[in-house]
Amino acid sequence: MIKRSVWLLVVLFNIIIAQAQDKKFSVHTIAFYNVENLFDTINDPTVNDEEWLMNGRQKWTTKKYKKKLANLSRVIAEIGTGENPNSPTIIGLGEVENRGVLEDLIKQPALINKDYGIVHFDSPDKRGIDVGFLYQKKHFKPTSYKNIPLIIRDGYIAEVEQNDDAKESGEAKVTAEYTGRIFTRDQLVVTGLLDGEEVSFIINHWPSRSGGEKKSSPNREAAAALNKKIIDSLYKINPNTKLITMGDLNDGPYNKSIKKVLGAKGVKEEVKQGGLYNPMEEMSERGIGTLAYRDAWDLFDQMIITEPLIKKDYTSFRFWKAGVYDKQFLKQPTGQYKGYPLRNSNGEVGFSDHFPVYLYLIKEIK
């Protein structure tokens, strides 16, 4: 009887596999890549690019710039091609100087045949870096796009004036001097039709940990609050909104900005209607990272998705799986930082100090 039951289970499993193999799916790779200081060689007086000039600290030459473009284009062309032969349909980018560097990038031999379009806005970041959005024109048609500024106040210096009269009355006069705004990257929101189906994207590069993780945490929590506000507004317009918010968040999946403020869940079953799923949380638990510091890996580059993308039917685009693109050629081959992302070092042009991340959206073809 036991043998018969086992045999029936084997037969049933083979039938299920055969049915799955008969199905065909449309697959799109969505990616994000912090390309680390993609600056051109032209002095722009409106941004802080002096370090990235020929006479600057980086000794940035046309030859080095072209090498950087070639390196990055190779990476972008190959992201996700282990499961999908096409390069990313959509890719968000961080740390680009301007639209011009994006135009130079998509003209590289490895990418020119992909026919990428560009969405870009200049942001007020004090380092002169922006986020950008590339899309394959044959698959994605933008219908709206907007840059949403992240307004963070640096705080106030309060002074309490207590003269003799104030002391007697118990009252004090308080004056406050505003210390200024923290200028950082805008959040880029793009909505469009992915093979005719509406999907939205938010491209992020949240404030850094300059000054320490704890001191700077409120800045990333403010970025998460803005992100949540955008997502909630889109959910309000369409409860079935399909959205991917992605970028270098400068926090890991377990930090307050993502777990508490954004409310992203690492387990699909815990995601309620109107909620968010973070597939990077499980990867972080397994020690996978996108950047390394003092021999510790962090997964700051993340892709977080709305609940409609994790439904179990595939009649429209759904999330399949996510990954970190960390091929060997992207790593330091030797030395103290062996295995780290291969960045610019000792005058040699590398790729970036971050690995790219990606996910697949799939839909059954009837």
What are its keywords?
alpha+beta, single chain, disordered N terminus, 6-stranded mixed beta sheet
What does this 3D model show about the protein?
- Helices cover 25% and strands 31% of the residues.
- The chain is built from 7 helices and 19 strands.
- The chain has helices at residues 2-22, 62-78, 99-106, 164-169, 213-237, 256-262, 280-285, and strands at 24-38, 90-96, 116-120, 130-136, 140-148, 152-153, 156-161, 173-178, 181-182, 187-194, 197-205, 243-248, 264-265, 276-277, 291-293, 296-298, 301-306, 318-324, 357-365.
- The protein has a 7-stranded mixed sheet with strand order 5-10-11-12-17-14-13. Strands 3-4-2-1-19-18 form a 6-stranded mixed sheet. A two-stranded antiparallel ribbon has the order 6-9.
- It is globular.
- Residues 1-6, 8-20 and 155-178 have low confidence and may be disordered.
Low-confidence stretches: 1-6, 8-20, 155-178
User: Within the largest sheet, what's the order of strands?
Assistant: 5-10-11-12-17-14-13
Number of helices: 7
**Content-based structural category:** alpha+beta
* Assembly of the depicted chains: single chain
Order of helices and strands: HEHEHEEEEEHEEEEHEHEEHEEEEE
| DSSP summary, beta strand count | 19
What can be said about the biggest beta sheet? 7 strands, mixed
Question: In percent, how helical is the residue content?
Answer: 10-25%
Strand proportion, as a percent range, falls in 25-35%
Distance between the terminal alpha carbons, to the nearest Å?
40 Å
User: Given the C-alpha coordinates, what overall shape results?
Assistant: globular
Radius of gyration, rounded? 24 Å
Mean of residue pLDDT values: 89
